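Provenance and format

Records in this collection were gathered into a single text stream. Each protein contributes a sequence line and a token line. The two records reproduced below are adjacent in the stream.
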Amino acid sequence: MTTSLDRPIRIAVVDDDETVRDAVCDLVASEGFEAVACRDAAGLFAALAAGRIDLVVLDLRLPDRDGLSVAATIRTSSRVPIIMVTGRGGDLDRIMGLEIGADDYVVKPFNTRELLARIKAVLRRTGRDGGPFSRPQIRHGWRFDGYEIDLDRRRLSGPDGVALALTVAEFDLLVALVGAAGRVLSRDHLLDLTHRAGGEVFDRTVDVLILRLRRKIEAEPTNPRFIRTERGHGYVFDAPVEAIGPVA
């Protein structure tokens, strides 16, 4: 499988366990992707600096740095999709991964076909674009208070024209809220709208994503203007929204 630039999709596989690393590399290579094997965080950062990476499969336990801190560092400058892989199965680790900005989460031992399905889903839903920030060319979407949502490219740009780094789940949640502006959406409804194929849904997912979105688009996250909480009912997007292009 190739990108629009007619080059293989490049996936960085980061794991210090050689057996696991080789197995995942063989798996993605069998689907036509280009696997970039990294045994530690240093190897990943070198790969990111050397050329474009379209997705990162990142183990949490690395010999030189914790995977969560690696993901946090990546998120300071890149929106490259991240799938975290770990032997830890608790909700706390999943929530921490979401808070940092991971796009999906797989627990060891995992089914290889499931991992491949998640890789393909994340690549598809992010437009296979893990490049540097750039101002999106809006074709159709929504505009609110200077922000612009490009549905075709799955991008959100701020009033300054700079694209914000949103994960797959954050973007899906924002679209669900903006698309129903003025209507209260329950947590269960939002869980259904943001649930990715093959993904695991747990109770605090929506609350974590709302918190992250507020930090990114609200001037005062603790006193939000856009995403209001309706206690006992859910959340409502409370701002005028203008459709761009063919969106009704």
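Adjacent record:
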Amino acid sequence: MSTLVDGTTAVAVPPLEPAPAKPPRDGEPGWRRGLFLLALVAAAVIFTIPFIWLISASLRPREYVFAPGFLPVPFAPENYNEAWAAVPMVTWLFNSLLVGTAAAVAVTLSSAWVAFGFAYFRFPGRGFLFGLVLATMMLPFAVTMIPTYLIWNEAGLTDTQVPLWAGNLFGSAFYIFLLRQFMLSLPRELFEAARVDGASYPALFWRIAFPLIRPALLVVLVFEFKASWTDLIKPLIYLRNEQLFTLPRGLKVVLDRFGYGGEQQWEVVLAGSVIATVPMIILFFLAQRHFIEGIATTGRRG
């Protein structure tokens, strides 16, 4: 103890001792984490090997395409020049980019509108109606393929790119479910306060909900862009003009022309496959952080 200037007495407080460290539980930080990382590495290698082989085989001369090994020996980068010169690859890439962007934007906005209605509004039969929306996911594409084609044919839009993306204007049951789950995690007080201030329902969506659900919207954009980029069935059904082909439909032409028909030039087919795959890999890496954030935060509430 010591006496201060004003005559009061200060009591010395002993320093606090650090809490004893908890012993590890059965070696959890060690061998379990190691096994988990080992499993991740093994899975990554398994999923990467086919793509590595694809790149390697596309860089080999014709007679060495199916040779064993993963090294492009001999090295033949001119295969890509042959692929670009043999078919209108630039046109197909542009068509795929245009159709994919239109399809992704259309389904994202339409699904977000419907999801906002199911998440915000309270009305009788809401659960039953939402169940009907989810039930549409049980319908196989083969069931609706012919009726949908007849509708577009009557509208005179076959052999155009419109049927490849315009159907997304009516939303998607899976994306509606995903976005609704995300919107349910938003504080309802934000919307109620905005309503008190006189905000309309569209304003609630665009000014409050839309900025807060951007991670989930990005997930939908990437999912749908990937689905459109790799879709072969719809272009096979609706497109006849080669200048309107998307990349998957064009690769079918490359496979028929250089793979199974005439002189087999599998190096051209593989080079075209790499060209079709690389843009999606670049897109995922650019949106990786936001994409994973949207996946991780979607569905916390049900």
